[in-house]
Amino acid sequence: MANKADYYETLGVKKNASKDEIKSAYRKLAKKYHPDNKETGNEAKFKEVQEAYDILYDDQKRAAYDQFGHAAFEQTGGGAGGNPFQGGFSGFSDMGDLGDIFSSFFGGGARRNANPNGPQRGDDDLMRARIDFIDAVNGKEITISLDIDETCSHCHGTGAETPNDIHTCSHCSGRGFINTQKRTLFGVMNAQETCPYCGGSGKIVDHKCSSCGGKGYTRKKKDITVKIPAGINNGQQIRVSGMGGRGLNGGPNGDLYVEIAIKEHSYFKRDGNDIHIEVPLDFVDAILGTTIEVPTVYGEYNVTVPSGTQPGQILRMKGQGIKDLRSGKPGDQYVHLLIKMPTSLSKEQKQALENFKSASKPSDSFFSKFKKAFKK
């Protein structure tokens, strides 16, 4: 236990972090270390992150952890002396009535009265979808194939062939748990354990459902449509209701969160809701000025290049950026002009430039002005 990492450090959050901050940190790390991630997947790290999230996101468990550290959940066979929570019982789970007392202190006094056989919502799932840059700008509908666990249509989640095949467990009287006695540092105390005969369901099934084999659910392959909103940014997530992990005891499935990964564009570069693009321009057009057709994410638009344009000059195209995901207000597009010089000239071009040079005063050249600056 001494070498076990601090849960807050595992998630990279402060001890006063909100539940939203804990959930956000968990999702990022779960995506990073998930075994299916070929680049950064790490099963051991993934389990550590999952364990830390399970404790810190639960208000009761977090309070116990803040009070007693890992000892509140550690199960060892240590004897007397040292940490009293290592004396033969596991955290609060095996402390019987004393565990209920601690629960009432930490705001979880009603937990003992919770129905263990009631419907339980499934876990949320996370997956990544990769889309093109233009699709992220303009929005798109994509199709995702999933393997989903659905409540069995034959037994409706009971796992029994017929309703008459379901009976209340006689060992626990349908409660799902049995009372036991445990010897602790404080003496013999009452405790509750999951009923080993019904597995905590409180029911015994005589004949299992012929359709699902008694599982209460069937696994199906589904193609779902996910609407990508215009203006979505890299790393943002879309929630698909009811397409996550399987619910228990007839409870609903969790949700699926689709994280969007956007492919880089060859020319357009995004900066918030603004777009930047580099456009080559002949040096003559930069000197004389011209009108050019500039591509945007919405099509091509004419842009006036003023005479005397300098290398690296940036022109702004108002409203040609990406529309804000919430307000719909578009950003701007910035055109970075790259002045290009020819590497070879025809006879006529050389003569034209010679005429231009002859018509110019030597003192007006940029190099002459540069030299004068050093003579002052």
Proportion of residues in β-strands: 25-35%
Number of helical segments? Answer: 9
Termini separation = 76 Å
| Main sheet record | 4 strands, mixed
Helix content: 10-25%
* CATH class group of the domain at 269-375: Mainly Beta
Number of strands: 15
Structure description:
With 376 residues, this protein is an alpha+beta fold. It has a domain at 269-375: HSP40/DNAj peptide-binding domain (Sandwich). It has nine helices and 15 strands. The chain has helices spanning 7-11, 19-33, 43-56, 59-68, 97-105, 133-138, 283-288, 347-358, 366-375, and strands spanning 125-131, 140-151, 166-168, 177-184, 187-194, 203-205, 217-228, 237-240, 256-262, 269-271, 274-282, 290-296, 299-305, 314-317, 333-340. Strands 10-11-15-14 form a four-stranded mixed sheet. It has a three-stranded mixed sheet with strand order 1-9-8. A two-stranded antiparallel sheet has the order 2-7. It is elongated, with a radius of gyration of 34 Å.
List keywords for this structure.
HSP40/DNAj peptide-binding domain; 376 residues; alpha+beta; 3-stranded mixed sheet; 23% helix; 15 strands; 4-stranded mixed sheet
In brief, what are we looking at here?
With 376 residues, the chain is α+β, with helices and mostly antiparallel strands. 23% of the residues lie in helices and 27% in strands.
Write the layout of secondary structure elements.
Layout: H1 7-11, H2 19-33, H3 43-56, H4 59-68, H5 97-105, E1 125-131, H6 133-138, E2 140-151, E3 166-168, E4 177-184, E5 187-194, E6 203-205, E7 217-228, E8 237-240, E9 256-262, E10 269-271, E11 274-282, H7 283-288, E12 290-296, E13 299-305, E14 314-317, E15 333-340, H8 347-358, H9 366-375
Parallel strand pairs: 1-9, 11-15
Antiparallel strand pairs: 2-7, 3-6, 4-5, 8-9, 10-11, 12-13, 14-15
